[in-house]
Each structure stands twice: as structure tokens, then as C-alpha cells.
Design brief:
With about 300 residues, the chain is of the alpha/beta class. It has six helices and five strands. A five-stranded mixed β-sheet has the order 3-2-1-4-5, with helices on both faces.
């Protein structure tokens, strides 16, 4: 059995650890509720935007008798893939980042990465993968951060530096489950019949826009509206994926800190039992020594 002093020191360390993880759990829980509200609340807007874009494309093709052409809709042969890697800035979130990194393509593929989050940047550096750019990602996910990375990725795509843009991120399913995905954003396949795929991704089986037989009046011109819509759809889809990633991160961190707190408290109870046994043994030994001394005298 360990000495009385060693058990006491370890018990104090475990209790201090439990206090720290409990505080981190409460902080993560507060952030988690806010992030979940933003992610779940934005799903309806993301679905409505996708369905509206598809309907306007159909209206355009019906009236003009031709498909709408836009650089972001044009598919081409892929020689170099571009992937926006959305990871966390900090650890202590379980296996969230490790599961995310598993969906990335093999290192021998021709891929250029745009990192959002310090953990993703560290992973790419350790594997010596091609890092095209790095952008900050805060907990509040302000839209100006999304706009900057979206504009950079779009310019790289239009210049031909990359032939597609994919997003490797984590989708929030529930507090205990987060799903890593690798989703293609450019070319915008969702505008070509992929609304059902997006609805499945966001777990929305109901709530589709009702069929409306009325014709639409598009002003100032159909081309101007469609160009603005395509640009907006690309940014808003990326923005919503970042909201989903933050909700998944805070949920995973809260669960990880709760598990750490429970483990620390369990170890503390075991050590407390050992401490009481060692203390009782020390008292018993003192009584035996006193009794032996009195008998000897």
C-alpha cells in the first residue's frame, strides 16, 4: 500500500483536476447551447436558399430556353482539389479532430488546403501537405471571416489554381454525436438537383417549399439576379457549415470535460477510501505501539 503522504498528495491533485474540468464543462456547456441554436436555426434558411436557387434556375431555363452559365457552376476536369479544412483552435474535445482528419484524401493525391483552425494547420504541417492559406476561426463565427475565406477560395478556383473546392468539417447531429463530412461546394452541384442531399445532410425530412405554379418576375434582369444568387449561395453554404462545425466542437468539448470530471471524481472516491484505510492503519499502529510500550514498562 502507498504511504499516507503519497495518497494525500494524489487525492489533492485529483480533486483540483476535477474542479478545473468541471469549470471547463460549464463554460463549454454555455457556449454549446448558443452554437447549437445558431446551427439548428440556420438550417431552415440554408434549405430555403437552396430550394429557391433551384427554382430560379428552372425558371431561367424555361424562359430563356437555355441553361444559366456561371463560372461557379461550370464543371471541369479536376487536376488539383482544393479543400477547406475546418478544425478547432484548441484540443480537449475528444476524438473530434482525429475523426475529421480521417475523411481527408490520401497524401499522394494532388490537393491544396485552406486551413481554418490551429489544429488543422498543425496536422497539415506534420504531414507536410500543401497549405494554400490559413484563416482564423473564432467561436462567434462572424460573417466577415467567412467572406474572406470564401472570396479567397473563389478567386483561386477562377484562376485555375484549384479545380474544385470541398469543405472538410463536422456536422452537428446531437450533443453526443458529431458527423465528419467532406462536401463539395464548387462547382455548385446543389444548384443542379442536390437539394435532397442537402436536406438529408441537415436531417430535414419535412419543410420543403410548396409547389407554386405562378411565374416569377425577376428584376432588374434574370442574369443579374442569378449571378448574385450564386455568389450568395456559395458564401451562405460555407457559413452554415462553419456554424455546424462550431456546434459540433462545443458539444464534443462539453462531453469530453464531463467524462473527465466523472473519471476524476471516481478516482477521487477510490483514493479517499485508500486514504481512510491508510489513516486507520496508522492509528492502529500507534495504539499497538503505545500498548506495547505500557506492557514493556
Amino acid at each position: 500500500m502507498k504511504s499516507f503522504k503519497e495518497i494525500k498528495q494524489r487525492l489533492r491533485a485529483v480533486r483540483n483536476t476535477a474542479k478545473i474540468t468541471r469549470a471547463m464543462q460549464l463554460v463549454a456547456s454555455s457556449k454549446m447551447h448558443r452554437a447549437q441554436q445558431l446551427a439548428v436555426g440556420g438550417r431552415s434558411y440554408a434549405m430555403r436558399l437552396a430550394e429557391l436557387a433551384e427554382r430560379l434556375l428552372a425558371e431561367f431555363a424555361q424562359k430563356r430556353r437555355k441553361k444559366f452559365l456561371h463560372p461557379l457552376l461550370e464543371e471541369r476536369e479536376i487536376h488539383c482539389r482544393g479543400i477547406i479544412l475546418v478544425s478547432t483552435n484548441k484540443g480537449l474535445c475528444g476524438s473530434l479532430n482525429q475523426n475529421l482528419f480521417r475523411v481527408l484524401p490520401p497524401a499522394e493525391d494532388s490537393v491544396k488546403y485552406i486551413a481554418m483552425g490551429k489544429k488543422g494547420k498543425q496536422f497539415l504541417a506534420s504531414r507536410q501537405l500543401h497549405l494554400l492559406a490559413e484563416f482564423p476561426l473564432t467561436d462567434s463565427v462572424p460573417f466577415h471571416e467567412v467572406r474572406s475565406v470564401a472570396d479567397f477560395a473563389k478567386n483561386a478556383y477562377q484562376k485555375g489554381e484549384i479545380d474544385s473546392i470541398e469543405v472538410a468539417s463536422t456536422v452537428y447531429v446531437n450533443t453526443m454525436c458529431q458527423q465528419p463530412i467532406l462536401q463539395t461546394l464548387l462547382p455548385l452541384k446543389f444548384l443542379r438537383g442536390g437539394v435532397e442531399e442537402q436536406r438529408k445532410l441537415f436531417r430535414r425530412e419535412q419543410g420543403a417549399m410548396p409547389n407554386d405554379p405562378r411565374s416569377l418576375i425577376i428584376e432588374p434582369t434574370p442574369d443579374a439576379v442569378m449571378c448574385a444568387l450564386v455568389e450568395s449561395f456559395f458564401r451562405e453554404t460555407l457559413y452554415h457549415l462553419l456554424l455546424e462545425a462550431k456546434a459540433a466542437e462545443q458539444s464534443a468539448r462539453m462531453v469530453a470535460m464531463k467524462t473527465a470530471t466523472d473519471n476524476a471524481e471516481s478516482i477521487g472516491r477510490t483514493l479517499n477510501l485508500e486514504y481512510n484505510k491508510a489513516r486507520q492503519m496508522a492509528i492502529t499502529n500507534e495504539i499497538i505501539e503505545i500498548s506495547s510500550g505500557s506492557v514493556a514498562s
